[in-house]
Design goal:
The protein is built from four helices and seven strands. By secondary structure, it is of the alpha+beta class. The model has no long low-confidence stretch (mean pLDDT 94).
Length: 137
C-alpha cells in the first residue's frame, strides 16, 4: 500500500461520498464543508486504486485531521492506521507539533491505538456523536 499527500481532490471526495454520504447518511453539503485552499489531502492506494483518505486543516502549530475514510472492504485491515501514521509523520516533518481530530465515538479505540487521547464532552457532528482527541507529534 502507498500513502501520499495529494492534489487529487476528486478521488478524495469520491471515497468520502461513499463512506460518509452513502453509508452514514451525512448530507453532502455538510460532508464537503470546510474545504479550503489551505487544506492538505492524503490518499492511500491499494494496487494503484485510491481506497482511503483524510483531510488536514492547519490551525497554527496544530494539524486538525478530518474526514478519515476507508472503503468498506478494507476496514479492519490496517489501511486506515497506515494512512493516519503516514500523515502524522509527514505533518511532523512540515513542522506541526500536535494533531487533533473529532472522532466518532465508535472510532475512539482506533485513534487511541495511534496515540490520541480523548478530551472534552461528547458533541454532535451531522447527527453522529463525537469526542475531540489530541496527540503530540
Amino acid at each position: 500500500m502507498k500513502v501520499e499527500e495529494t492534489g487529487n481532490i476528486a478521488a478524495c471526495l469520491a471515497i468520502r461520498t461513499q463512506v460518509f454520504t452513502k453509508e452514514q447518511g451525512v448530507p453532502a453539503d455538510l460532508e464537503i464543508a470546510g474545504e479550503g485552499p489551505n487544506c492538505l489531502h492524503f490518499l492511500a492506494y491499494e494496487d494503484g486504486t485510491p481506497v482511503a483518505t483524510l483531510r488536514v486543516t492547519p490551525q497554527g502549530d496544530a494539524a486538525k485531521i478530518e474526514r478519515v475514510a476507508v472503503l468498506d472492504h478494507l476496514r479492519g485491515t490496517g489501511v486506515g492506521a497506515q494512512l493516519v501514521r503516514t500523515a502524522l509523520e509527514k505533518l511532523k516533518a512540515k513542522g506541526f507539533t500536535s494533531a487533533k481530530l473529532g472522532s466518532q465515538l465508535s472510532a475512539i479505540g482506533f485513534y487511541e491505538k495511534l496515540g490520541f487521547v480523548a478530551f472534552g464532552p461528547e458533541f454532535d457532528d451531522a447527527g453522529i456523536p463525537h469526542r475531540m482527541m489530541t496527540r503530540d507529534l
